[in-house]
Design a protein that fits this description.
Blueprint: H1 5-11, H2 13-27, H3 30-33, H4 36-56, H5 67-102, H6 108-111, H7 115-137, H8 141-147, H9 166-173, H10 184-202, H11 211-216, H12 220-226, H13 244-249, H14 270-275, H15 279-291, H16 303-316
Length: about 325
């Protein structure tokens, strides 16, 4: 079936938005670029813009936004922009910056690079770390228990990239970018471009970018397959923004999935997502107390067994990754 004009236009919106972000940080008014609120506003503007596009040209009716999903996504997007960001700065970025200063490490060569190459450097460094952290999460029991809640989402939308257990959100946000001396606008441009890519990769938007885009950058096709209900199908396409890393390291798989989730597509509440990494221990503790007669039997959430079973499968299949 021939692609409609509307769909052809939408296919070019992701690269066009990346270009707009880069042009803004490269040539925007100095007063605006130096305003601390500008960086705070860019990410929400990107997410809201793409969320609105879901209403104009949705990909799957089953992923249509509703009130419950909207407020859950809103909670996590606020969480990652505040508590998670502050935590990462406290436990990782500040110590790395201090260590760099005390050791006298300088990377003047990085700041002397052309601006666009600084942007590329930030994206590659940041994505390289995220790729290996993401891959570790699918191949190590403790890390999978933090990441599994993100795979319990049962639909994909523009704000879903921020949904997950707080421990995972901290781990996936760690980066070595602070070790490089760079133009701040290049760093912000890189993060803005990554935001466009990753939000589209989670969005319910019918947009299939050109082949040159999907060769380098993660798309909804790649990432929906990663969110498949079959656990083994999730162990591919780890690149959050750079699918190129999957092509290089042998974890790329072609395909797409319209059905996403884990554990019979059980949707977790915010509280269940928060407790998920600890649920096997909680259930084991309750079982021990019940066996010793300390407490009467009580209903289990079932999450403990599910989490433990998935964790065992992860370890059992780690060698194949």
């Amino acid at each position: 079936m021939p692609t409609s004009l509307k769909n052809r236009v939408f296919n070019y919106i992701p690269p066009a938005m990346i270009a707009a972000v880069l042009l803004f940080w490269a040539f925007g008014p100095k007063a605006l670029l130096e305003n601390s609120w500008t960086l705070v506003a860019v990410s929400p503007v990107i997410t809201v813009t793409i969320l609105l596009l879901e209403w104009v040209n949705e990909r799957h009716a089953g992923w249509r936004m509703n009130k419950q999903e909207f407020f859950t996504d809103l909670f996590y997007n606020i969480l990652i922009a505040t508590v998670i960001a502050w935590t990462v700065q406290l436990v990782a970025e500040n110590p790395l910056t201090a260590a760099k200063a005390s050791l006298g490490i300088t990377t003047a060569w990085a700041k002397n690079l052309p601006w666009i190459l600084q942007v590329v450097l930030v994206i590659v460094v940041h994505e390289f770390g995220q790729y290996w952290m993401h891959r570790l999460m699918h191949n190590s029991t403790p890390f999978w228990l933090t990441h599994a809640p993100h795979h319990h989402i049962t639909q994909l939308n523009a704000g879903k990239g921020a949904v997950g257990n707080p421990i995972e959100l901290v781990l996936i946000s760690l980066s070595a970018v602070v070790l490089f001396d760079l133009d701040k606008t290049a760093v912000f441009a890189a993060f803005g471009a990554q935001s466009v890519i990753t939000v589209f990769a989670h969005a319910n938007v019918r947009a299939d970018p050109p082949i040159w885009y999907s060769f380098f950058f993660t798309t909804i096709q790649h990432h929906s397959l990663h969110h498949s209900v079959e656990y083994e199908s999730t162990r591919c396409n780890y690149g959050n923004a750079l699918i190129l890393l999957d092509r290089i390291f042998g974890t790329y798989r072609d395909g797409e999935s319209a059905v996403v989730g884990q554990d019979d597509r059980k949707r977790l509440t915010i509280w269940e997502q928060t407790l998920f990494p600890f649920q096997p221990m909680i259930d084991k503790y309750k079982a021990c107390r019940h066996a010793s007669g300390e407490v009467p039997a009580s209903g289990s959430t079932g999450l403990g067994d599910a989490a433990a079973n998935q964790a065992r499968e992860t370890v059992g299949g780690a060698a194949a990754a």
